[in-house]
# Entry
Amino acid sequence: MSLTDIPLFAMLKGKLHYASQRQTVIAQNVANADTPDYAPRDLKPFTFDQAVKNATGGDAMTRVARTNVAHLQMDNAPGGQWEGQTSMDSEVRLDGNHVVLEDQMMKLTQARMDYDAAVSFYQQSMQLLKTAIKKPGS
# Structure
């Protein structure tokens, strides 16, 4: 049995993966701040309802099984890919670029705070498990 078999840890893994991907997408937006006609992208918000569905395998009809080792591994297994969306910032420059660096930095800070919170919760959960498996009196 691995930690990802425990739904709580599977959800935390999904949240960490989401926050990491969101930081990557926002960094791409910042890198393209001078690209003409570039529209910033973002990921749809992480929801625990979807994470629970992913962690527990979801509906039997929606699960995808890898039936042959020659098949490609699905990236959208529990904690997999999230759908991107184009998010127009409030300003548009003359060259058609929609990236506002201040907005992107705020989003990046929020993504970092989400990541740090998930790491902290993961560490606390690990400590709780260590306490639970400790021999009494030690």
In short: Strands lie at 41-43, 84-86.
